[in-house]
Amino acid sequence: MSQSLNQPNRLGEGGRIDRAHTLSFTFNGKRYQGHAGDTLASALLANGVDIVNRSFKYSRPRGIVAAGAEEPNALVQLGSTEAAQVPNVRATQQALFDGLTAQSTNGWPNVQRDAMSLVGKLGGRFMPPGFYYKTFMAPASMWMTYEKYIRKGAGLGRSPMERDPDSYDHLNQHCDLLVIGAGPAGLAAALTAARSGARVILCDEQEELGGSLLDSRELLDHQPAAQWAERVVAELAGLDNVTLLPRTTAHGYHDHHFVTLHERRTEHLGETAPVVDGYRPSRSRMHRVRAGQVLLATGAHERPLVYAGNDVPGNLVAGAVSTYIRRYGVVPGNKLVLSVSNDHAYRAALDWDEAGREVVAIVDARQSPDGELVEQARARGIRVITGSAVLEAKGDKRVSGARVATIDAAAFRVSGQAETLACDTIASSGGYSPVIHLASHTGARPTWDDEILGFVPSLVKGVHAAGSARGIHDLAGGLADGAAAAAKALADLGRTARAVELPQVDAIREGAACALYQVPHEKPTLRAPKQFVDLQNDVTAAAIELATREGFESIEHVKRYTAMGFGTDQGKLGNINGMAIAARCLGKSIPEVGTTVFRPNYTPVTFGAIAGRHCRDLFDPERYTPLHQWHVAHGAEFEDVGQWKRPWYFPNRVDGKQESMAEAVARECLAVREKVGILDASTLGKIDIQGPDAREFLNRIYTNKWTKLEVGRARYGLMCRDDGMLMDDGTTSCLGENHFLMTTTTGGAAGVMEWLELWHQTEWPELNVTFTSVTDHWATMTITGPEARNLLAEITDIDLDRERFKFMDWREGKVAEVPARIFRISFTGELAYEINVQANYAMHVWKTLFERGEKYGLTPYGTETMHVLRAEKGFIIAGQDTDGSVTPEDLGMQWAIGYDKPYAWVGKRALSRSDTRRTGRKQLVGLKPKDPAVVLEEGAQIVFDPDHAIPMPMVGHVTSSYYSPTLKSGFALAVVKGGQSRMGETVYLPMADGQTHAAEIVGPIFYDPKGERQHV
C-alpha cells in the first residue's frame, strides 16, 4: 500500500477514516493533520510522533501502547484556553476534531528533553517501592515541603482555573436488558432481545458500535465482519424499544442492577459543545440506568509481555497494531518484531505484511505452533522463531532493536544465545484477560480459568456475561454465546426469546496458547534492565519481587506497596502479569494469589458529568412555597430553612418608617395571642405512608405507640437514631386503617425519608409498606389564635364544634370551595387549625382567608414569631434544642416513650446504656433571666459558679432565647446538667464582653402550662 505524503505512517488507502475530511490539530505546540474518524492517538502515530508523555516516577519517554481504554501512557491535557482545560484524557479515546489542542501531562521543559529524566536514569535504582515512605520520614515538619515537589514532579495534568463554559446533565433510565459492549457478543445479544420485544439499552465506549468486528480479518456470511455489524446497528437504530449509546462507558455497577453510564455527547465535536440551532447541548451525560437484567459483553484486554525495555516508544500490544492498520490506516513503524504466546496475535504480523512493511520475525514462546495463522505467516515467508521470546527492547526514545533468545518458560530462564534483530517496532501478546471490572463492582470475586489463562467473572443474580468477557474468544463462539446469554436473561424476566439467525463464520483453527507473563533475562530480575508491569505507575517486575521479599504476600498489599493497578489504569494491562510474578516469587499459583478488587470508576469520569446540572444556582436550589409571591408582594423578609425560603417576619410601615424585626415580631406575637394569625407552613415535610404493615412500621420507627390510633386522629411522635438520640419529631395522622400522613421538620424532611427507606430496605424488608414524599403536593396554612374558629367557620363546610372536632383530630371537607384536610394541631398553644389543600389552590384559599379575616384582625406571621410562640410553650425544635446528644428523657418527654411496646423501636436498647441512664446528663429546662430586659445569647455557656477560676466548668448552654411581648421579659430554653432536679436554682452565663448574666432555672413551659387555650 502507498503512504500519505503529509503523514508518514498513514497508508494511502484502507481504514474507516474519511480521507476527504482533513483535520488540523496541535500537539505540544506543533501542528499536525489527521482525518475524520481518527482518534488523537491514531493521528499522532500517523504523523510519526513517538514520545507522547513522560512516565510517572522515572520520567522515561513513553509512546502509545494500546488502542482503547487500556492505554496507560498517552494521557494528555486538552484545551486551547484556560476554561477548556481537561486533564488526563486518553489519546486513544479522544476523537480527533478540527482545532484540537493537546499537550503531554509530564515533561519539563518539554517531553523530548525532560530534566527529570536525569533523576530516573541516575537515581532510578535508588527509588524502589516504598522509596517515598522510607526517605522522607524525617524531619516530619518538612513533609509538606517534600509533598509539594513530589506532586509537582508527578505530572498528572492540571485542573482549569476558569469557569467551565459547558453544561452537563443526568438522565434516569429503565430497561429490561442493559447490554454493555457492542462487539460480536453484545450485538448478537442486543439483536436477540430487541427482536423479542424487550426494552434494550446497548452501550459501548468506542466512537462506533461494532467492537472488534470493525478491524477483524474474519468474514461473516463471506463478507467483511464490519458490514454485518453495520447492518445490525442500523436495524437496532430503527427499533423503538432500543436505545443505542456509542461513546458511552459503563463505569460503575451498583446494587440492584443500577449502572452508571458516562456518555461523551459532544467531546468529539470540539473542546466546548458547539451551538446547534441556537442551542448548546450538554458536553456529556450521566445515564443512571436501572436494568431488569444486565449482560456484560465487555470483551478482553490483550496482555503485553513483560520484558526488559518494554516501555521504550515503539512497544505496542499486538492487537493495537492490527487496529491502527485496519481501522485507521496507520502503520506505527517500518520493521516489526512480534513476540507472542498464542495464535491470535499473528494477525498483527499478517496485517503489517499486507500494509507493505517488513515483518522481521515472529518470536513465538511455544515450541511447535501449528495453527492456520501460523501457516499463513510461514507461507508468506515470514520468519517464525519458536520456543523463544524478546528478552529486551533496545533503544532510548524509539525502539532500535530486539534481543531474542530461546527460553524455558516453565523454569523461568534463558536457555539459548541471544540474537539482536534490527527493528523499530515490537508488538507483544501474552494472552487475553476478560474485562471483569464491572462484574467485580458487584462484590463477586472472579475465578481463574486455566484453559484461557485468565480470570473470568463470577456473576450475581441477574447478571450475565458473554463472549470474550467470559473467555470465549473465537468469533463464532462469541456470537452464539451473546445470543444464548440474551435468551437466558429474557427467560429470567419471564420472556421468551425469538431465535436469531446468526451469520456463518469461516472458522480459523488456532492452537493452544502457552502461559508466559514475564520473559526471563540473562540477569536476575533485580539486576536486569527495567521490566515494566504497570506502565502508568512505573511498577516493574523487580518492584513486585522486592515487595514479596519484604514480606508482602497478599496481592492487595503488594498492590498498595508498589502502586500496581492504581490510578486511572485500574490494572487493565498489568494486573495479571503482576499477579503471575508475585505468584512465582511466593511459590504459589495465580489463583492462590488471587486478584485485586476493582472499584468504580472503570475509566475516569469528569466532575462535570458527576455533578450534572447540580452546580452553581442548582447546586443547592432555592425552594419556594406556592404562596411565595404573596409574601414577596407584602414585604416579607426571608430566612433560609433547609433549601426553603420561608417568611421570617412581615415588617409594616408605621408613620413612614419600617418596623424593626423586634417590633414586627412583637406585633405578630400579640396578634396570635389576642386575635388570629396565619403562617405558611407548607415547608413542613410530609410523607404519605401506606400498606398493611404501616402501623407496625410506625411502632418500630417512633418511640411511642401507634397500634390503636384511630382514623381521624393525629399523634405527636419522637424519632430516635439507633444510638437513642432524638433526630426528628412531628405529628402523624391516621388517614385510613393502613394509611398515614407523617409530618417532619422542614430541614429534616429528606433525612427522615432516607431514614425510613434505610430501615425498611435493610432491616425490615418483610414489612409491606411504602413511603411517598408529598411535601410539594400539599400547601399548609396554619391559622391560630382565639378567633381562628370563627374565621374558618365562614369558609368551610366542616363542623368545627369543639366537642365534635377535638384537639388532635383531623377532618376532610372543603375550604373556600376547595377540597381540604384540616388538622386541629397547635404549635403555638392557641386554638389552631392546619389547612392542607392541593398546592395549586393554595393562593386562592390564602386570599380568601384574608378577605374574610380582616374583621378578625388576621395577621401574617413568620418563622421568628413562630419560634417565640412555640418556645413560650416549651415546644422543641429538633436540631436547635437538640444537638445529637439529647435523648427523649433528657427532654422530659417520658410520656412519649413506649417502653412496653412488643417490638423494640429504634433507639430503645441505647436508652438502657449506662451513659444514657447516668445522672448529670444535660436536660431541657427553662431559664428566666433575673433582669427581665435581658435576652440571653443562644449558644451562651452556663456555669454554676461565676467566680470559679478559668477554665470554668461548663454545665450547659442556651438553645433558644427570645423576648416575649406576652410575658414582657426575656426567656430561654437551655440544656443543663441535671437541670430537671435543679428547679429554682440560679445559674450564670459569662459573656465575651465581661458581663455575667444570672438566670433562674424554671420549667420549660412559660405560657398556659395546663394547655387550656389550645383545647377551647
Short structural description:
The protein is an alpha+beta fold and 1016 residues long.
Task: Characterize the structure shown.
The protein has 1016 residues and is of the alpha+beta class. The chain has 24 helices and 52 strands. The strands form 14 sheets. Strands 8, 9, 12, 13, 14, 15 and 29 form a 7-stranded mixed beta sheet that branches. A hairpin with a 4-residue loop joins strand 49 and strand 50 (969-977). Helix 5 (184-195) packs parallel to helix 11 and helix 7 (318-328) runs parallel beside helix 8 (346-354). The longest helix has 18 residues, at 475-492. It is elongated.
Give the averaged pLDDT, no decimals.
Answer: 95
Number of helices, counting only DSSP H or I runs of 4 residues or more: 24
Give a short account of the largest sheet: 7 strands, mixed
**pLDDT below 50 for ≥5 consecutive residues: which ranges?**
none
Give short descriptive properties of this protein.
alpha+beta, 7-stranded mixed sheet, 6-stranded mixed sheet, 24 helices
Write the layout of secondary structure elements.
Elements: E1 18-27, E2 30-36, H1 40-46, E3 53-54, E4 61-62, E5 75-78, E6 86-90, E7 100-104, H2 117-123, H3 131-135, H4 143-154, E8 168-180, H5 184-195, E9 200-203, E10 219-220, E11 223-224, H6 225-237, E12 242-245, E13 248-254, E14 258-264, E15 284-296, E16 300-302, E17 315-317, H7 318-328, E18 335-340, H8 346-354, E19 358-364, H9 372-379, E20 384-386, E21 388-395, E22 399-408, E23 413-414, E24 419-422, E25 425-429, E26 432-434, H10 437-441, E27 447-449, E28 454-456, E29 463-465, H11 475-492, E30 532-534, E31 539-540, H12 541-549, H13 555-562, H14 575-586, H15 590-593, H16 607-611, H17 628-633, E32 637-641, E33 644-649, E34 653-654, E35 657-658, H18 661-674, E36 676-680, E37 685-690, H19 694-701, E38 714-720, E39 726-736, E40 739-744, H20 749-762, E41 770-773, E42 778-784, H21 788-793, E43 810-815, E44 818-823, E45 832-838, H22 842-853, E46 858-860, H23 863-872, H24 914-917, E47 922-929, E48 941-942, E49 956-964, E50 969-977, E51 986-990, E52 996-1002
Parallel strand pairs: 1-7, 8-9, 8-15, 9-12, 15-29, 17-25, 18-19, 18-25, 19-20, 36-46
Antiparallel strand pairs: 1-2, 3-4, 5-6, 5-7, 10-11, 13-14, 14-15, 16-26, 21-22, 22-23, 22-24, 27-28, 30-31, 32-33, 34-35, 36-42, 37-40, 37-41, 38-39, 39-40, 42-45, 43-44, 44-45, 47-50, 47-52, 48-49, 49-50, 51-52
